[in-house]
């Protein structure tokens, strides 16, 4: 073999070995990053420090002077003290006291590193190289600090006198907090959403890891694990505990956070095949599924636990709903796993169990009108529901007492779809001072409740009503201003010989009330004026029968626009 060929083979072999060694190592590093647990901490948490027993973090923004102490065993935290800083731009522990950086004043004023005892009393300060400084890490008597503006980010090592011992450009533009791990320096970059491990001799990036969420703002090494903070959204941030040499982090993902079974006949079953995926880097161990909420006793699964799902894999978890009786399902399936972020993942389950065939349901099967003024009319809306899996047809509704009458415009038959309902007006008109009782007979195609009987009762009140006493009233609700603006009377439209009342109110509505109501007035009709409300009595008037329907018409003048 020639020397040239031998040299080529040697170079090729060296390059091959380099690729073979660096490729798997890089992949292994990514897998080793394992989130062990996570805690929710206050929103805008900033900076992290470790004293060998507890973790400490500060706040950026409102309450920026607060420093908290956190128990790493359970994530519980308490306010330790209110310090001299306006905001905690990083946090570190020097073996005796805590340090933070703060840049009060104008951009021409250098930032300070502030030493505080555990009562929050300032002990000393260090003048830093620039104003926009963030992040601080204690390093054997000296400190690492960072500048986040102007770009790019810049890192300094200073002594207690503020003398710059070393400096280099950072790997990103928004360094927020720093910590030491042996001879290496970790940097949490706020806008880069990344965590960098740096060689302190040269500033070279040794490792890079993406934050789980956004805006990482605190980082510290406790001698065994790396801890960091990122944005958890409204109401709180996340604190993560990371094993740098673990087996990878499992993350659960599901095919849907909710499922509606729709309509299921009682006595039958319906199965939803939930897909559970592992989008992390370590094995996902699913320990079980539990059910809670309305109808949860009728839920089950045929999956076997514990269930191991490898990274980039998925498994099916059948969730079966077997309702024994008609009713509503409004439940939660909770998947328990070793996902450190979502160890108990909730899935909403809904549905409606119905009877076989049409099934009449009258929620109020007996109604008492109470005392009603003799000669008055008052109305109750009877609700009829279909709780079956077929159309319910109401053939007829009859009353055995003329004092109780079905509204005249109701026509039969009435078809009620599955899980739908109708309201039927039932009037009570006592003509004597006495007690009344009667019943409604509802004829339908319900196979086992035909006819359906509704009991009615009420009494006539022959009390004399002096002029000025309230005969009926109505409270307009639902708007910011519901005050009546105009009132007129119109000729009788119900056939009882008493004129009706029309009211225009500030909520953009015109309503017609039964003039012969009692107690709570009956609304005969209402109309919304979309372009504006009637603003005064002059805006509502009665005119001739313009459309020739046998009734005089109403003219409306609305403010701001016309309708």
- What share of residues are in beta strands? over 45%
How far is the N terminus from the C terminus? 100 Å
CATH superfamily of the largest domain: TolB, C-terminal domain
Anisotropy-based shape: elongated
Q: For the largest beta sheet, what order do the strands appear in spatially?
A: 22-29-28-24-26
User: What count of domains describes the coordinates?
Assistant: 4
CATH architecture of the largest domain: 6 Propeller
Average pLDDT number: 92
Give short descriptive properties of this protein.
single chain, 563 residues, mainly beta, Neuraminidase, Immunoglobulin-like, 4 domains, five-stranded mixed beta sheet, 50% strand, elongated, disordered N terminus
Structure description:
It contains one helix and 46 strands. With 563 residues, the protein is mainly beta. It folds into four domains: 33-243, Neuraminidase (6 Propeller); 252-354, Immunoglobulin-like, CATH 2.60.40.10; 360-461, Immunoglobulins (Immunoglobulin-like, Sandwich); 472-556, no CATH class. β8 (112-116) and β9 (122-127) form a beta hairpin. The radius of gyration is 38 Å and the shape is elongated. The protein starts with a helix and ends in a 7-residue tail after the last strand. The model is unreliable at 1-30 (pLDDT under 50).
